[in-house]
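Reopening this one. Same input as before:
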Amino acid sequence: MQYRNLGKWGLKVSEIAIGSWMTDLNGLGASETARQSIRAAYDGGVNFFDCADAYSGGEAEKFLGNALREYKRSSYVVSSKVFFPMGRGANDWGLSRKHIIEQLDTSLKNMKLDYLDLYFCHRFDPTTPLEETLQTLSDMVAQGKILYYGVSEWSPVQIVKALSVIKELHLRPMSVIQPQYNMADRYIEDEIVQICEENGIGIVPFSPLAQGLLTGKYRKGQPLPAGSRATHQADKQINKLLTDENLDKVEKLSAVAAELGVPLSVLALAWILRLPQISSVITGASKPEQLETNLAASGLRIPQQALEEIERILDYHPFVRKIG
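Same output, byte for byte:
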C-alpha cells in the first residue's frame, strides 16, 4: 500500500480507502463478512475508513467503530458526514450549528471515539448561511473534536464561496472534498480539480467503479448477474448507467485491462489515482476477496500509451462556452 498527503496537509492516507455506504449488516453472517473485510483492509495497509451518520441510520458508524477498536487509534484515519435527516424534527437535518454539533456528538458516541480525523458536509444546505456552517466546523477543529473538515457533493461555485468566507472570517481551512468521480463521471475535471489544487485541498472520491459498471460484470446483451447490485438496489443508480454506449466502452476498457494483465476494476481505480490531486479513492467491498483486488490498484502506474487509448475510448468533452 502506498500513501499520499491529504492535499497540502500533513495527514497521510492510504491510496485505497474503505467506505461503509453499502456495508451489509443484516444478519450475523453479513456482519462477520463485513468485519473480515475491514480486518483484511487494515492488514493490507488501508488506514482510511469512511462512514456517515445516515448510513444504516447510525448502525454503520457503530459497526465501524467497534471493528476498529482492536487497533491503535493513531494507526487509522476515520471520517463521517452530516446533513441528511436523522429524525423528524425541524432541526434534525442540514448544516445548522445545532444539527452539526448534535450529530457530531452522536457520531463520536456511535464510534466510541474522542475525535474524527475527517468530517464532511454531505450536501449543501441552502437554508443555512455559509458563515454559520463554516464557523461551526472551524470551532469543532479548535475544540479537537475533528482534525480536518471538508465537503462532499458541492458545486464549484459553492466551494469557491465557502473558501471566500473562510478567508474573510479567518477560519480553520477546508482540507478535503469527497466528490463522485470515475471513468463514467468526470465532471470534477472541469473546475473542481483546479480549485482544489490552487487551495491545497485533498480529493477523496467515492463511487470509483460507477456503481459496479466498471467491474466488467455487466455485459451488453447478457442478463444481469444474479445477486448483483442492479438486481436489488433501491434507487436503481447502476441500472441507469447500463446503456449501450456505456457497455460498449466497458468492452473496450476491458480489452485495455487485459493487455495490462489486470482486472478492469483495478484499471479503473489506478486511472483515478493518475491525478496527483487525488489523495485516496474510497472503495466498497462486500467480501474480503473484492478488497484484495482493489488493493492491487495502489502503486499501479498505467503506461502512457494505455492512458491515451483510455482517453479515446471515454471520449470525454468538458462543457466549454466562449464568453465575449
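So the earlier flakiness isn't reproducible anymore. For the record, Residues 3-210+273-300 form a domain with the TIM Barrel fold (CATH 3.20.20.100).
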